[in-house]
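Practice problem: predict the structure.
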Amino acid sequence: CLYVRPAVPTIEERNPPDGKVSYRVKIRLKGAPPESATFTRKTDARRWAEQVQSAIREGRHFKSVEAKRRTVGELIDRYISQVLPQKPGDLRNRKAQLLWWKIKLGHLKLSELTPALIAANRDELLASEVRRQSATSPPRKKSPATVRRYLAVLSHALSVAVKEWAWIDENPILKVTKPAEPRGRTRYLEQEELDRLLKACAGSRNPHLSTVVVLAVSTGMRKGEILYLRRKDIDCEGGQITLTKTKNGDLRVVPLAGNALELMRTRLGKKGDPNDLVFPGSKPERPTEIAKAWGNAVKKASITGFRFHDLRHSAATFLVDGGATDLQIASVLGHRTLQMVKRYAHVRKALAAKAVADMNARIFPEE
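Answer:
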């Protein structure tokens, strides 16, 4: 009887010049193609080897041929060129985030990309410092929200590779824990602050800023949703805007009224192709850049601790103040659940307190 020794995975320790030790696992079993993966911890390498060996022997392990042939860098390059331009939002930041991942993981085959490697880079992001705006600015760590955005953009790229390109069988980020975020911000404008901001925006060199801000505070639309508006999306007669590209992917119809509606009527009164952007930049196919103009307007208006996205919170707060229900607010802002609307509960409490005070003043007048 001939005894055949079972194949044993090999684990190679790598010590690159940058000092970041890694462990490369190689598995060779008769009748199956070789498998390999790289990890930052030896325990993760051993665990993976055991799981893959067991899956191969039981016929449960089927790695895509494309996953073994394609690299993470190739996936990111294709996503940036084909998918990213079609998405609304801050494309420059998303591209920068993807290129960060390419530097860290781009050399790996997709078959080697594991949740453990992604988690290790997540932790590195959390420990890294944000670039200083000036020499006197104190250093600060990247926020959990920022790290979640890094993970989100890579996750979408991997999901596209699973569903549309058939490069990989599953998205490894789904097994990575996202850093917990603090309670959502509820910074919003008081009426006097809004008046100062609108005046500052009206004096901006950017001809689009004032209208963009009026739309944001009138409708609660996100910056990306506004900047990527096309003429065909706006129905001035019906008083509504139809958003086909939103954060959660749902089509949303936003009511348009008052000053915002008049501004759109004036803007669309000029001839143009229905597919033209409403707020074009120096290149007509790209939207205007408002970051610098926005920063200057906020500074000129002497408003502190306020971001563009807070205009959305301001719109919600004004809706609450006007008596809108949670369901109505969720519909306007595009929230799938009412949980997000609960952050404005403090406004309702203040209104309720005022209503009770007014009632008591009427029924128990001072003598």
